[in-house]
Amino acid sequence: MTSYAVIMAGGSGERFWPYSRKSKPKQLLRLTSPHKTMIEEAIERIRPIIPLERILIITSKVLRAEIINAVPFFPAANVIAEPAKRNTAPCLALGASVIKTRLKETKETDAVMCVFTADHFIGDNDAFDRDVRLSIEKAAEGDVLVTLGVIPTRPDTGYGYIEVQERGPAPMKVSSFREKPNADVAIEYMKSGRYLWNSGMFVWRISSFEQAMRTHLPQVAEIISMDGDIDERYKALPDISIDYGIMEKASNVFVVPAEFPWDDVGSWDALDRLQNVSDGKNVEYGRVDVVDSSSAIVVNASTKGQVVSALGVANIVVVLTDDAVLVCDKSRAQDVKQIVSSLKSKGWDEYL
């Protein structure tokens, strides 16, 4: 059975302000590699499994041209702009609609659809390849929804969790999806050995996905089989995630435990994990001079030749760009989007 991939790349990356901006969010930045943007890395991971002509990128109208320019080797016709900003359930229904249209052209009746995001760190491409191929095999067998779950390395409260009925050979039957827990519950999840992080990566047959949509989100399901212009119908769709709308309700969900290092690169403090920083060491990007400091993240992304110096600080994030400076306690890195909201309220859109 033919396989397609959908890369979701419409996020704004507000927690990486001021480096990440509306027209150049984190998926277009070199955060996890000194040489490649995150969207480039995502494409190259998938390319050995699924050819470029069957990889779709779903993004926003604002970002479509930026992505096309950022990956000139990628087919421009495969960069699809959402008619309006919506959550992951409508986004994936749009991707399924495009795939169904292309299947009609090739006279195929079904295909496997693999779902990835443009802003994750994957630390072992060979293991990623094996896990995705195993997921494709399971999805191709019948009416199932497959997800990739990440084996927890810490009791993280920032991720949702997947509970399996019992540990065994992969893929395993999913018992439930759990929302982000508090610290005590996260510790219990790790101790039990029956919980995995929800990575937001999925694999299913188009027919299985459409049936799940018709059962749980019939309004969203309508666009999957629509011919022609779907813009107005899409704009009326609810803002709902695929996890809440489908995965938490479906009874035919299986999970493949990922054997690769993974991080969702959600905020500046992720740089500690990506560089394996510990014991008070600092993360330093660009022209910076950090003296007598510990556990600091100091990033100089300016093109104007400035130097950023830090003295006697700890657990702090400092980021310089050509027109903005961020200074925050590292423990508040997840809250940087509050600054973006504050700038919006002041009408300072030129800094967004």
Based on CA inertia axes, which overall geometry fits?
globular
Please give the CATH architecture of the largest domain: Alpha-Beta Complex
Provide the domain count: 2
Measured distance between first and last alpha carbons: 44 Å
Largest sheet: 5 strands, mixed, barrel
What is the H-and-E element order? EHEHEHEEHEEEHEHHHHEEHEEEEEEH
Fraction of residues in β-strands: 15-25%
Helix content: 25-40%
- From the structure provided, what is the oligomeric state, counting identical versus distinct chains? single chain
Classified by CATH, the class of the largest domain is Alpha Beta
Largest beta sheet: strand ordering: 6-9-7-8-10
CATH topology of the largest domain: Spore Coat Polysaccharide Biosynthesis Protein SpsA, Chain A
Structural Rg: 21 Å
Mean pLDDT: 94
How many runs of DSSP E, i.e. beta strands?
17
SS element count, helices? 11
**CATH homology superfamily name of the largest domain:** Spore Coat Polysaccharide Biosynthesis Protein SpsA, Chain A
Low-confidence runs: none
Q: Short summary of the structure?
A:
This protein is of the alpha/beta class.
